Amino acid sequence: MSPTPTGRLTRTATGADLVLVRTFRAPRADVWAALTESERTARWIGPWTGEAGAGRTVRLTMTAEDEEPTGDLDIVACQAPEHLRVRMVDEYGTWDLEVHLSESTEEGADGVTTLEFVQHLVEPGEARDSGPGWEYYLDRFASVVTGGPEPDFADYHPAMVAHYEQQLDASA
């Protein structure tokens, strides 16, 4: 499998935003559930424990990573079923992540949901590694929503690094 990188990088006053978009033939409520319910997040990024809600902190275990690291995930904003923003600090840095979900209102498009994922980066160069990583995780997420095959990380990194280097050059 050779997935095509889709992320784009936009410079901001404080760094850059890494933006990836996925579209699903599924109702927004179902996509939201796959994004926020621990038993469903366990299938694509890892389970979490704690009491969820804006202003709260849950504990996330990333099961697709070596050694399955666990860390605190601060829920900055949560407006179901359309917006989630979280922050996590670990040995690799600060992860400021945001997801927006929208469901098409066009006639005949019932149940088509667009997911816009944003990583707010202080250091734009982080996109070289985090871009391929989020492509992989979002494709894992898609496999949970659609029932499709689970991707292999080896198809994403280092194969997609050049795309993100081009994004860095183009956004400079």
TrEMBL record:
It comes from the Bacteria. Residues 25-145 form the Activator of Hsp90 ATPase homologue 1/2-like C-terminal domain. Pfam families: AHSA1 (PF08327). InterPro entries: ASHA1/2-like_C, START-like_dom_sf. Belongs to the AHA1 family. This is ATPase. It comes from Desertihabitans brevis.
